[in-house]
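Notebook entry, structure prediction.
Reason for the run: the old model in the group folder had no record of what sequence produced it. Starting over properly, with the input documented here first.
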Amino acid sequence: MTLLAASGPSLYWYLTRSTGAMAMLLLSLAIALGVLDVQRWSTPRWPRFLVDSLHRNVSLLALVFLVLHILTSVLDSFAPISLRDAFIPFVGSYRPFWLGLGAVAFDLILAVIITSLLRARMGYATWRAIHWLTYASWPIALLHGFGTGSDVKATWLLALSILCLAIVAAAVLARVLAGWPENIGRRAAALGGTGAFSLFLLLWLPQGPLGSEWARRSGTPSSLLPHAQVSNSSSGSGR
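New structure, fully documented this time:
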């Protein structure tokens, strides 16, 4: 910790971005495994308990990286982000809406984890209903990454975001096609929702985070705007 502090906020920033990217990738994998339904997609070579264990471990690893992402964001002195901002949405002074989306996603994931620990006491039906919050946390977390990521134009981050979207979309498509046309209304809603979200990103990103002056429009404090403008004109790996 002493070494991190001595290295200055730039190291914290790199840790924040890298842990956030890993958390997003792992969350996407966990969502995809959940969408595919471990019971339906188990095979003699990959029995249900093995796939179920993979889903659980990937989810827990995503939580670890998410906690590290939050801690390094708070420790980085560049942006005024407090620990309270990680739990209470839309109260921060740094890009409040987009940072608030991250708090919403984190709260949803916490609700799923806590209820999973209490699953034996609360019953399967209640736990299952709350578990669906995980699916809502994924698009919210992806929007949070686009909105707060000051290096969102970097090629590697765009490629990673597209990969995350492709992983979840492929899982949804595979689940929808399996057993078609049973529950066609629910399957059509899942497919339509995924397509609508993908189309929204395609139309919004060029005018939003990939457009001009996003730092100002996203709610960056005026005292930090000169720093954001300088970094945006660089290679895309800085603030």
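Summary: The chain has one domain: 10-219.
The old model has been moved to the deprecated folder.
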